[in-house]
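Blackboard transcription, Thursday session:
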Amino acid sequence: MTAAIMKLPELLSWVVNDEPVEPAVARQRQQRLAELRREQVLRPTIFVGAGTCGLGAGAKETLAAIHKHLDEHEIKADVIMVGCIGLCSLEPIVEVQLPGHARVCYKQVTGDKVAGLLDRALAGQCPDELVLGQHRNDAIEPWADVPFLDEHPFFAPQTRWVLANCGIIDPSQIDEYIARGGYKAAVEMLRKTTPETVCDIVEKSGLRGRGGGGFPTGKKWKFARASAGDQKYLICNADEGDPGAFMDRAVIESDPHRLVEGMVIAAYGMGATKAYVYIRAEYPLAIKRLKAAIAQAEAYGLLGDNILGSDFGLHVVIKMGAGAFVCGEETALIHSIEGRRGMPRPRPPFPAVSGLFGKPTIINNVETLANLPTVLAFGADRFAALGTKTSKGTKVFALSGKVSRTGLVEVAMGTPVRKIVFDIGGGIPNGKAYKAVQIGGPSGGCIPSQHLDIDVDYESLKTVGAIMGSGGLVVMDEDTCMVDVAKFFMDFIQRESCGKCIPCREGTRRMLEILQRITQGRKKERGTDALERFKSVLHLQSLAETIRDTSLCGLGQTAPNPVLSTLRWFRDEYESHIYERKCPAAVCAELVTYSIDADKCRGCTVCAKKCPAGAIVGAAKSPHHIVVEKCIGCGACIDACRFDAVVKE
Amino acid sequence: MAKNDLDAVLERYPNASRDALIPILQDVQQELGYLSRDSVVRIGEHLNLPASKIYGVATFYNQFRFQPQGRNHIQVCRGTACHVKGSAAILDAVKRELRIEPGQTTRDGQFSLEVVACIGACGLAPVICVNGEFHAGVTTKTVGKIIDSYRRKGSPNDGSDHETT
Amino acid sequence: MITIEVNGRPIPAEKGEMLLTALRRAGIKVPTLCHIDGLNATGACRMCVVEVEGQRGLTPSCAFPVADGMKVHTHSPRAVTARKTIVELLLANHPDDCLYCNRNGNCRLQYLAEELGVRQRRFAGDRTRHHIDASSPSIVRDPGKCILCGKCVRVCEEVQRVAAIDFIGRGSKTKIGTAFDEGLNVSSCVNCGQCIAVCPTGALSEQSQVKEVLDALNDPNKIVVVQHAPAVSVTLGEEFGMAPGADVIGVMTAALRRLGFDRVFDTGFTADLTIMEEGSELVHRLTNGGRLPMLTSCSPGWIKFVETQYPDFIDNLSTCKSPQQMMGAITKTYFAEREGLNPTRIYSVSIMPCTAKKFEAGRPEMGRDGLADVDAVLTTRELASLIRMAGLNLRDLPPDTADTPFGERTTAGKLFGASGGVMEAAIRTAHYLVTGRELGDLKVESVRGFDGVKEARVQVGDLNLGVAVASGLGNASRLLDQIRAGRSDLHFIEVMTCPGGCIGGGGQPIGANADAVRARMQKLYAIDADESVRVSHHNEAVQRLYAEFLGAPLGEKSHHLLHTHYAERGVVS
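(Written on the board underneath:)
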């Protein structure tokens, strides 16, 4: 196809720069694009991070306070809701840009701080206590004495390709995406590149599936291309089920067009004309944003029949998941879209040969697809220049848990985990010691301190029993009990097991029970329970191996990982639970003993009133005492005590 | 009345095949608040699917309920980040406060409780979500206050969508 | 043909087939719990895992295609340990009441535990508690014994197209049940019992009436009359270690007598009677413009299937009762009169290859004056247990013959036991009724055999009839769908609920494979070839019954005693 038959929306034609125009027109266009990129604003502009994280932290109140403030003071300013810049722990994040000045980012702007901030920020000041940094803007003189955002320790080590626009652009405006180079890669692909070449480029770029498996994306597409069939499907897996992962949600909420463009590229490459986005129903905002983005893309001729006048067409349908972790597995996901129970089936045949409705189907996750515009824009070589030998490009992580700065982090492949946790995340808060980071969700593993220098790389992570996974990165400190963590994951897995194959259904349940016995107090043990406890521990490892060896799908095969991984690195904690009947981190309620420090106790009686087991005795105004035999370890007394007199160990 | 709501949903799916089942169940639950026996049978007739298959699908997924939920629906996130930050204790505190177990509704119909695997707001852990409103960094001490604030309101603010709540 | 290497030896395999198929052909035993011959593998039970070189984990042989030169180890320590662990995991959630279980000694789980040498309880823990569903007159479900292999679900949906049951819930809370987890009696279940036939454990069994029958036998005031269906004598032997297809009619009759039954009748007699009535009905419909195609009504699962899922075909069903019910009706009328017995003293038992017959016997229209025509129905399996209980050895008994007046049957009646048999018998008699001459070659090859649907054009006098035979409700429903869509070349359709007909019935000995069912079928054909009276209208006892009691086919008495009506039923009531 040629440029001549390619009808472009006006804005896109400017970006792609089709025909030479008069310098004056070119200048005018560049100015409009710069406006859309907000390099310059004509009047004060206030950006509010209104992703799910921001809203959860109170962005709604912040927004209301901003409007109230502007109304009361009759200030004319634009208020724009953007997505998530990624620093969840400092939400709500508000940015203010004044005409002629760089955009400045402020942290933790809760509703009560709005008036104070705006009073000063709109007057041309940058309140130090709230400032996070200013955006770099070559066109404008920067603020003096305000650090640059990209020098902030959270952002400096990152390489933001997938997240480039997140928190920056208005996700509801396709023009803002286009002004930043969006859809350019897709247009040029449709003009110049055959689908086979697209597959080659993607394969050569070294892009691997970001959903967990790490299968080379281009190679996967080629399987589907090679499969016979007039109808082929692309499925975008946005059923981000890993507890501890929220990258896909944030990308869709903050930059939905990047995903849409990625789907156009993928569908063209593999030969699909229909795409499904299987997205969690728990993500209402992301669904709303994606729906809007699809509608805009259709209006611009970027989706639908004969995209931009070419003979390639793509229709995108959103399917909401209904809450089943196992639907992250490809064949289960397909069954779910078909209206069946999301139970996996044996492979072969692989979905690339026989998938949705029996047709060749490729399933790519959100982050994989969101990488594609970059892959095509950069070309295979430049993309592959970043990263390690076998892992190319960047990886987005959802950093959470016991770490100072939580949020979305995108780093080059090969970045040491230590850098993510300690430089980007700011280390462990409250002076506590690092214990481990769980990577890859329930199917992954944990990385102990002695391996913190391991690189983010598909292969190296496997050497320590972890996996890249989808990108959940949960940090744990000395107050985290690793047996409890293993139990948590087993509980999750056994609840989310589809129940089809025996090893996963029955085995995970028994593994959970073994962990429950280990963490259970003596009080509940009857008869030969203590013997059973020891006996079952002996079988833990062999049971784990059978589940791994024989389960039907990836969920089952990786189900024992949390136990195997914690057992490998934290055997001593298991031993404390089993032999000493103690939880070193004082987490496992039944192994924890509570007592009252008589010196601190004022005898206020609050704890005794709150105790659901009636285990606390003592007269008013004299120190209280906990009857250990009655205590159920719920911790209600600790919450109730205003004098920190309750001690747990 | 329920019948009409159901009809309205089914009319949106003319000549539908099995792949429309889950969207229909989602829409019906949106309209009715839960999946009634009658609605399952009617959906079966509409899609020409045995009721046993629909029941099998609906019981597979966490989303579907067969009893009406409370006026205020509390979801406690039990994701990894929330767990590490103490969501087990949060859940216990909510259970103590409402005296119900997950999946149940209080006798006065005010509150229902649900445990969700991960709500995707890990950066704000631990999180609970009431009627779609997120509450970040919840502690066992603040659980009571949060619940009280809804108890006073009595019922959710209708009609508001998730973005603005 | 390609060659694969299994346990160090080459074995041949066909390109594209699953590894399990090749292994079985080579006589290498790999256990399965969820596999059903002829249906796609679900890969659920993981019992058939083997080591395939180059594969990371263990490979399910049921769902893994063979490849030239692949190296397989079926009984490596790793594979055997995995299988054993899987069985141990199942046992950890199993009631452990083998001694009280209806499948004691005939249970796949028990067998595999033994074969794999499980000698201790390695995994102890919570067992899922379930209610037993005994609501159905035919089938009892004990979900506590269920290992969730899913075979019942698949047979019910894929073979029978009934889909009364499905998986409910998820993970370790998964169970199998009806819509809304209600009783089987209010579901769309047609009581065929195919689920029982495939169940590897005691989770599904027939609703036993052994105790009622024993009570009746022990009651001196009861005259206990028994009838046995044509398909029973060729399967009962399997319960006693005989080869599939062994005909034990003589010793079975002897055993029934020793059990204390006062009269032993052959349902083949009323099969012949059915042909007289149904053949006449068909001729009547053909000549009087009645509703066509006429559908047979011998198979009670099929009847309920039509009532629930194809009510628009109710008028197509022959109004004839099934042979079991005809026998019940004439036993409590003609036989009672003849013997001078008060019908209330007669306890009528039938031995059936079928669980749906239990439901049929309980249908309110199947009796008169508050008296059921058939009081108890035993499956072939239940009869075997009665015989064992009485200490009888089938091999030692001198053969015996059935009683008058209902002991005589033709081979046409005997053919009822196989799919196509009713059709063949009906064609033979219809030809005689229409033309007054016997059919030239009595063997109607086109309706014989194991195919799910068999069709033929038959010349009966001036009439060129389109006939079809379906077995398995899935096949039947596909046929009905064609007719709904406008197909009009068929005049008469025989439907048997169970694949292969009654010889493959849900009440037959457990563990029969397709080869066993074929052997049973061949025996029925052999009986037809060997005996001399091969048409129902030559059954002299039937003729006597008409002469002495009924009058003529479709007559007044027949109408009251031998015909019935059907009504639409809600699928989920």
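Lecturer's comment: Residues 156 and 162 of chain C are 5 Å apart (CA to CA).
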